[in-house]
Amino acid sequence: MAYRIGIIDDSELVLEWTQSHLVRAGFEVVVHGSGFGIANFITEASPHLLLMDVDMPGITGDFLCKMVKQGDWSQRVRVLLYSSSSERKLSELTRQCGADGFVKKTDDPEELIAQIKLHIAVLGCAPS
What we know:
By secondary structure, the chain is of the alpha/beta class. The protein is 45% helix and 20% strand. It has a single domain (15-123), classed as Rossmann fold (3-Layer(aba) Sandwich), CATH 3.40.50. It has five helices and five strands; from the N terminus they run E-H-E-H-E-H-E-H-E-H.
């Protein structure tokens, strides 16, 4: 039983890099290249955890997080903001939008995986 992680990011490079490292670490990964259509994405992909890019054109990750947390999925999907912004900014955005936490974008795959595993342990995400 693998944890299914959804990645929402407008950068194809970030999607590919993040997906490849998380798959190698044993996660099931689904990706979505835009903040638009997120309701269908969550319904069809059923992720346990969403990594949501904060800075996307046309719609921000913190706004999307508020939508997810107010939707029918809020009890079964955890949302982590995913950004290279400062920890201070991410902490504030997390509090404001109701995200379950944040993950800093990094070029170190081991750090990314460690952050994801830590959040999974803390949040108690249930694998399928």
